Amino acid sequence: MDASSARIVISGYYGFKNSGDEAVLQSILLALQAESAKQGISIAPIVLSIDPEWTTRTYGVEAVHRMKLKEVLRAIRQSDGLISGGGSLLQDTTGRTTIPYYLGILKLAQWLGKPTFIYAQGIGPVNSRIFYPLIRRTFRKCRYISVRDNESAQLLRKMGLQREVIEVVPDPVMGMPLQAGDAAHALNQAVTHSKPVIGVSVRYWNADRSELVKLAECLQRIQKQREVEIRFLPFHEPADKQASEEIIRRLHPDMDVRLISAAHPQQMLAEVSACDLLIGMRLHSLIYAASQQVPLIGISYDPKIDQFLQRLELKAIATTEHFNVDQLVLEAMRLLDHKQQPNALIETMRAEAHRPAQQMVHYLVYKG
Q: Looking at the chain, which terminus has fewer C-beta neighbours within 10 angstroms, N or C?
């Protein structure tokens, strides 16, 4: 690396076209670009992706296939460091191979003598304690560790990492800006729309689909009290689109309903920003809404939802296990009827979201 440039490999759940994870990648890329410009260095990202052609086409960056070892090794060997993050990479609820994969990528970089950085990850759940020493040993060799909530920091301390080496920062997506054209489009929609817009982000969770049935009932009851437009916002297609369609089939045919498709994270951010209320199961639908000061209602299926809402001094109105229709309808009407004041906590979180990028770029500039 010369003094004015660096190549950085970025490892995460990228190329799967999950809007939340793609938003994490876009946010990291934008933050690195902004901070490197401030500190006088040029950064060339190399993204590990399941679909490198799509990732290159979408973000205009170099990408290699995350499962092709030779390509991954070559990218890391030619780099000046590796970022692991963000999102929930180190958890074993989606399978026992997830943690070994992401730790393996970190270890490859460390074996090759490259500095490694943990970027605003959500750690856990880690149900198998066999992973504790593996995570501890790998993280101890990282030059910088940041996590997106206190619960993640506590879990790492439980694994044996020292308190002072862990920085708690907001999810990277809190710092993702609207594109200029999208911001103007969202403002125009807000000015010209004659009735409130409720954005809805859902996913499959319960086997009996009971959460979808109850949410459909909620939307029906809201419509009886207030003329609204319902916009379904699938964050992970095709599954979220199918879950949305299940709810739509249960709604009255006269209801004003739209199903939105937005491939790029900043396009989805614009769609959320145009809503008057967001009802969300997907974590990043709630983060999008919060970052744009859109009133939100969280439906929790995972502790990460509750952890994010707690940072905003909010609580989930419903969970997939305990879904009170009356309570959700009441809260939706309250938020629609009373204009909310901007939440000062959100502006602080937006400013702090670039902290990992600042730290990593500083390291690359000053080598420590």
A: C
Write the DSSP symbol of residue 236: B
Convert 159-191 to b/e letters by CB count within 10 Å (16 or more is b). Answer: bebeeeebbbbbbbbbbbebeeebbebbeeeee
Are 147 and 118 a contacting pair, CB within 8 Å?
yes
Q: What gap in Å lies between CA 309 and CA 316, rounded to an integer?
A: 7
Rounded CA-CA distance 161/122 in Å is 15
The C-alpha atoms of residue 357 and residue 169 are separated, in whole angstroms, by 11
User: What do you get for the CA distance between the two ends of the chain, in Å?
Assistant: 15
What tens-digit pLDDT sequence spans the chain (368 residues)?
455 889 999 999 999 998 889 999 999 999 999 999 999 999 999 999 999 999 999 999 999 999 999 999 999 999 999 999 888 999 998 889 999 999 999 999 999 999 999 999 999 999 999 999 999 999 999 999 999 999 999 999 999 998 789 999 999 999 999 987 665 555 565 556 679 999 999 999 999 999 999 999 999 999 999 999 999 999 998 999 999 999 999 999 999 999 999 878 999 999 999 999 999 999 999 999 999 999 999 999 999 999 999 999 999 999 999 999 999 999 999 999 988 788 889 999 999 999 999 999 999 998 76
- DSSP symbol at 255: S
Give the closest residue to 258 by CA, choosing from 229, 238, 282: 229
* Contact present, 271 and 233 (Cβ < 8 Å): yes
The answer to whether the beta carbons of residues 260 and 234 sit under 8 Å apart is yes
- 């090759």: which residue's tokens? 112
Other CB atoms within 10 Å distance of the CB of residue 322: 9
- Tally Cβ neighbours within 10 Å of residue 50: 15
Q: 267 burial class (0-12, 13-18, 19+ CB within 10 angstroms)?
A: middle
pTM of the predicted model, to two decimals? 0.90
Q: Could you tell me which residues are beta bridge partners of residue 121?
A: 87, 147
Write b or e for each residue in 338-349: b if 16 or more Cβ atoms lie within 10 A of its Cβ, otherwise e.
eeeeeeeebeeb
CA distance 171 to 86: 8
